[in-house]
Design a protein that fits this description.
The chain has 19 helices and 14 strands. By secondary structure, it is of the alpha/beta class. The relative contact order is 0.15.
């Protein structure tokens, strides 16, 4: 039988820049945990499939700032030290429980100990400490499409200057090409944050701001991803460009028209008049993994995320039940948990079969189900998730009616010709910007907007005539990029790390101010430059001219 439809996993891998910026409870250990719990197990699972001869396809986004950290020698060496400490703590827990009459927990500690030792050995011997290189080899062999993103995951709809959006995208594409040897064809707009074209009235004058698809098209990007509500529901509207510049001036307001009809996320669409397509996030498949209460991660036999062992810091207990108190959690049994994974593989594939069959009626083009998830959900949050992903890929690689594909590969075979007008949207709460702009974070945005304008001025005043740049100007650009990260307002809004995120934001602002002051006054900045670069050194080839007005 020929394939009736397609399916694409899209794993979005991202962490804030935490290199040498603290450890526990917030800081560089965030990267170490993700390597141990998610990135290493994912690479192992994909490598196993390759050795089996499984012809799987998978889209994995790795944001530029994450790629910079995973390839940083300091983080690589610190990860080794982190794993050695984990091994020592787990050994201590095993000895403690063995001597205190708790053989079940002692056996579990022993199981974790072997897992830690194998992870560290694999990091050094299988991947030689080079995880980015391992992902690149899977890409070059045709198994992966690696999705690009903005340099430091800035929430682009709230940026006040087109120069900032242009720089975030251009520098992100440049870093992607350096790490993976080619430019990305698909692009993850940070937080799925999209903003359409509109006229902005400033001091009585209307200035045109293009939609984000225009910036992506300049770099040859073929597609990006949007939340389902932007495609399927809500008040879908766009600026009425046909009204023209003079009408916008006369009315003094943004003129908007409602989209003629809603679309289905089962197909991609060209965004406005661009050559860039949008894939809508499928919510039915999304709930199976994202929801702890309704989805697979809440299964009673799976490992509980919230309860940790006081000695080792490891998670020794299972979910047990939906409303079971932490004190009453039962010990985790890996054999039971992993033996239950197949039932959730069967359920997920069954959903896909019915979902695709339902969308095929009367369709000229095979539908596609696109399932985007944070990569860190697998392994770290849902411990058994990597094994589930591996088995789903294996099952779908040989499925008689579902083609396992990637977004770029699907577009190559089925280029869209239908257009859509997307509204401003995100995949955050309310599908809008409230997670990043609210009463807790509104103090941050005037600072970002001030520095956006200031960066344009600094570049204009201090660019060299021959096109070269200076190390001070490069470091100013780094501090601005890091200041603009969407992670700081996110961590404040979700109350995960309010003090840490505020401190990090202010630290990058202070370094930006210091270097700009030195540059403008002609004062020697070598000492400051040395100090700041030791802390913040991503993007070695950063081009400040990308921020030119």
């Amino acid at each position: 039988m020929s394939a009736r439809g397609s399916f694409a996993f899209v794993l979005h891998s991202h962490l804030p820049y935490v290199r040498q910026a603290g450890t526990w409870p917030h800081g560089e250990e965030m990267v170490h945990e993700a390597i141990a719990d998610t990135y290493l197990p994912l690479l192992d699972a994909l490598s196993d499939l390759v050795r089996e001869g499984c012809e799987f396809r998978l889209a994995v986004g790795i944001t530029p700032i994450l790629a910079e950290q995973l390839s940083d020698p300091t983080i690589v060496e610190n990860f080794r030290a982190y794993m050695e400490a984990q091994i020592a703590r787990t050994q201590k827990a095993e000895d403690f429980y063995a001597h205190h009459g708790q053989p079940e927990l002692a056996a579990l500690a022993s199981w974790y100990l072997a897992r830690h030792q194998d992870s560290l050995r694999g990091f050094d011997e299988r991947y030689h400490g080079d995880l980015i290189g391992a992902f690149r080899r899977l890409q070059d062999a045709g198994y992966l499409e690696i999705v690009g993103s903005a340099a430091t995951h800035g929430f682009l709809p709230l940026m006040s200057r087109e120069s900032t959006i242009a720089a975030q995208i251009a520098l992100g594409v440049r870093a992607h090409e350096r790490h993976f040897g080619r430019k990305p064809l698909s692009f993850w707009l940070p937080e799925c944050g999209y903003r359409p074209a509109y006229y902005e009235l400033v001091r009585g004058h209307a200035g045109f701001r293009p939609g984000l698809e225009t910036h992506l098209q300049r770099h040859g990007i073929r597609a990006f991803f949007a939340d389902s509500t932007a495609v399927e529901g809500g008040e879908v509207s766009e600026l009425d460009l046909r009204a023209g510049y003079s009408s916008a001036l006369a009315s003094g307001v943004e003129m908007r028209i409602r989209n003629l009809r809603y679309k289905s996320t089962a197909w991609p669409y060209l965004v406005s008049d661009s050559t860039v397509a949008v894939f809508g996030r499928d919510m039915l498949t999304g709930r199976q993994v994202w929801s702890a209460s309704e989805g697979y991660p809440g299964h009673a036999m799976y490992r509980d995320f919230h309860k940790k062992d006081a000695i080792s810091g490891m998670r020794f207990w299972r979910v047990t039940g939906p409303r079971v108190d932490l004190a009453d959690k039962a010990p985790y049994v890996p054999e039971w948990a992993f033996s239950d994974v197949d039932q959730h593989v069967d359920h997920f594939v069954g959903i896909l079969e019915r979902h695709i069959a339902g969308n095929m009626a009367g369709a000229d083009v095979p539908p596609i189900v696109v399932a985007p998830y944070d990569t860190e959900l697998f392994g770290h949050w849902w411990f058994e998730g990597i094994e589930w992903l591996k088995r789903v890929l294996r099952r779908l690689a040989n499925h008689p009616t579902i083609e396992l594909t990637t977004p770029a590969a699907y577009l190559q075979r089925h280029p869209p010709d239908e257009k859509i007008a997307l509204p401003e949207s995100s995949w955050g709460a309310g599908s809008d910007a409230r997670t990043w702009m609210n009463d807790q974070t509104k103090w941050m945005w005037p600072i970002i907007h001030q520095y956006e304008r200031q960066m344009e001025q600094v570049v204009a005043e201090h660019r060299l005539e021959d096109g070269r740049t200076t190390p001070v100007l490069q470091q100013i650009a780094r501090e601005l990029l890091l200041l603009e990260s969407s992670d700081w307002p996110f961590l404040i809004s979700t109350e995960q790390a309010v003090a840490y995120a505020s401190e990090r934001f202010r630290a990058h602002a202070a370094r930006f101010d210091r270097l700009v002051d030195r540059l403008s006054s002609g004062t020697d900045a070598s000492d400051d430059l040395c100090r700041f670069h030791a802390l913040d050194n991503p993007f070695p080839d950063v081009d400040p001219l990308a921020f030119a007005a």
